[in-house]
Amino acid sequence: MRAAYEVIATRGFEGLRTREVAGAAGVNIATLHYYFPSKEDLIKGVVGYAMSRFQTTLASNGSAIQRLRAHIQGLRRLSREEPELFGVMGELMMRSARDPALGRVVAKTNEFWHGTLREMLRAARADGDLPAEIEPDGMAAVIVATLKGVYLVPGNSGPNEDLEKALRQLERVLGLTARTRRRRPSAKATAPR
Fold first, then answer.
1. 8 A C-beta contact, residue 144 and residue 81
2. CB 55 within 8 A of CB 8
3. 87-123: per-residue pLDDT in tens?
4. How far is residue 94's CA from residue 151's CA, in Å, rounded to a whole number?
5. Are the C-beta atoms of residues 84 and 9 closer than 8 Å to each other?
6. pLDDT value at residue 120
7. Where does residue 34 rank: exposed (0-12), middle (13-18), buried (19+ CB within 10 A)?
8. Exposed/middle/buried for 102, CB within 10 Å: 0-12, 13-18, 19+?
9. At what angle do helices 84-96 and 159-174 cross, to 10 degrees?
10. Calpha distance 67→130 (Å, rounded)
11. Which distant-in-sequence residues (6+ apart) come within 8 Å of 168 by Cβ?
12. Phi, psi values for residue 43, rounded to 5°
C-alpha cells in the first residue's frame, strides 16, 4: 500500500502499475494480488492510508477550540513532514470524479471530516470560543472546500505556502490567533437602550 502511495505521489494514477508496485514493495505480483485482488482494491488501501494520516490531526482530548487549533497545527505538520500526502489527495479527488467506487469512498471520508469539523465548531461556539455569527455547518464546508482546493489546484507559490496562507486566513476568520478566550456579551450589554 505504501509503495502504491509513493507511485501515486510521484507519477499520479497514470503511472500506477501493479507490477511496479509489487517490485517496489519487494513482493511478487501474485503476493500483491493475494492482498489486493484488483487495482481498485489497492487504490482503496491507499485512500485508507492517506485518511489515516489526516486523522492524526484530529485530537480526542481538550476543549473544542483546542481540538480545532490542534487540527490546524496538525495540517501544518503534515504539509512539512509529508508534502506528498497533499499530492496524493489531489490525485484521489480527481480520480474519484471518474470512478464511482472511489467516489463513494472519498465522499464518506469527506462526510466524516465535514461532520467532525461541524461538531468542533458547534461546541466551540457553544463554549463562547467562537463568534456567534460563525455558522458551524457552513464554516465546516468552507474549511473543507478551502483545504481541498489547496491540494487540488496548487498555486505558483507551492502547496506548503498556499496551505499556510489558507490556514492563517481560516485562523483569523475563526479568531483562533487570539490567545484570550472570547467572552459572551452580558444581557445588560446587549439590551437596547
1. no
2. no
3. 888 888 888 888 888 888 889 888 999 999 999 999 9
4. 11
5. yes
6. 96
7. exposed
8. buried
9. 80
10. 13
11. 177
12. -65, -40
Domain boundaries, the chain: 44-181
Amino acid (1-letter code) at residue 97 = A
Task: Identify which has the larger pLDDT, 152 or 26.
Answer: 26
Q: How many CB atoms lie within 10 A of CB 40?
A: 13
Element (H, E) at 162: helix 159-174
- pTM passes above 0.85: no
C-alpha grid cell, residue 73: 497545527
Place of cell 471518474: 98
> What 3-state DSSP class applies to 184?
coil
Reported as a single tens digit per residue, the pLDDT across 4-44 is 999 888 888 888 899 999 998 999 999 999 999 988 889 88
Please report the pLDDT score of residue 181 as a whole number. Answer: 45
CA distance 177 to 67: 14
CATH superfamily label, 44-181: Tetracycline Repressor, domain 2 (1.10.357.10)
